[in-house]
Design brief:
- The chain has 311 residues and is α/β, with parallel strands linked by helices.
- It has one domain: Vaccinia Virus protein VP39 (Rossmann fold, 3-Layer(aba) Sandwich), CATH 3.40.50.
- It contains ten helices and eleven strands.
- Strands 4-3-2-5-7-11-10 form a seven-stranded mixed beta sheet, sandwiched between helices. The chain has a two-stranded antiparallel sheet with strand order 1-6. Strands 8-9 form a two-stranded antiparallel sheet.
- The radius of gyration is 19 Å and the shape is globular.
């Protein structure tokens, strides 16, 4: 069994010129009149919800330097800085288009911007940050996808990453299956961050291990294979994340780990109107369709918060 490498860097550097077709949870919640806000207990944007959730777990008086990797349009960091202007953020993105969008929305704040491939960043550079955030974009990192031809060229990127996968399997006792897609970029990045002893880390993405609470199963159907699944998007493919493998790495570096669906900090206002919308086999309106997808994503997306032991 061989592997090919699924990479999205060329797409994000050269071709990406809009996020209109890829509606993230954060983008869906940003407009004040968003129908997605109407189904939540607290009608606020994603960044506000996340900040309020994190401040229950970490002391923001200890947080100054933040690195956000792949910050999209900059909405999350705009919320953080509005709530806590003492923060000094760096926005790192491989996409020149998105960096320009971030500069526009964050122009009123003191923010550093860096265009770079996060996997080429020197490991010791991470140690400058108190908190690292990577929200809804781990699936953009390289993934090893199984196929029938063995790759033997040692200069090939896939072959190099395959050697890395063998290292992870042995070092962290990760039981990769024979036909399993491997989130090699996510594993590599998290190990680099953990080695730098960053005190606080937040990650989120579509999960291949997502679960729906029993009371919601009549309303939401999520089938999770337990192995990374392909998501076909404009100009590129992404893969869902196996968070249990990331958890193994974090715990080996003595991080306390909290995982769950992002619904943990975006709780639903579960009323009769929402139930009726979720029960529809075919939505009658665009708003109902948006709400159905949004609620689905609240449980399909998983987050992982890592806090260095002793903090």
């Amino acid at each position: 069994m061989g592997y090919t490498l699924n990479a999205t860097d060329n797409y994000h550097i050269k071709d990406l010129n809009s996020l209109g077709w890829e509606l993230t949870v954060g983008n869906a919640l940003y407009p004040e009149n968003s129908p997605c806000r109407s189904v939540l207990q607290t009608k606020a944007s994603f960044g506000v919800h996340l900040y309020r959730f994190l401040e229950k777990l970490i002391d923001f008086n200890e947080i100054y330097n933040i690195l956000e990797i792949g910050g999209g349009l900059g909405y999350l960091m705009h919320d953080f800085l509005t709530l806590n202007p003492q923060l000094t953020p760096t926005m790192l993105d491989i996409s020149p288009y998105l960096l320009e969008k971030q500069k526009e929305i964050l122009k009123e704040f003191n923010v550093n911007f860096l265009q770079s491939d996060i996997l080429k960043m020197e490991m010791n550079a991470f140690s400058a940050y108190d908190l690292i955030i990577m929200n809804e974009n781990l699936g953009d990192l390289p993934a090893l996808v199984p196929h029938g031809t063995y790759i033997s060229d040692p200069q090939d990127d896939a072959a190099s990453y395959l050697e890395k996968a063998s290292y992870f399997k042995q070092k962290y006792n990760i039981p990769f299956a024979a036909q399993e897609t491997i989130n090699i970029g996510a594993l590599t990045l998290l190990e680099n961050i953990c080695r730098a002893k960053v005190e606080y880390i937040y990650l989120s993405e579509h999960s291949c291990e997502a679960l729906v609470p029993e009371f919601l199963k009549p309303y939401i159907n999520i089938e999770s294979s337990g192995t990374p699944e392909k998501i076909s998007l404009k100009g590129h493919n992404e893969y869902t994340i196996k968070f249990s493998y990331l958890q193994k790495i974090a715990q080996m570096f003595n991080y306390n780990v909290r995982r769950g669906p992002i619904a943990d900090f975006l709780p639903l206002d579960f009323n009769d109107r929402l139930c009726a919308t979720l029960r529809l086999t075919t939505p009658f309106t665009a708003e109902q369709e948006i709400i159905q997808q949004f609620v689905h994503d609240l449980y399909k997306y998983e987050y992982m918060i890592m806090i260095k032991d002793g903090k």
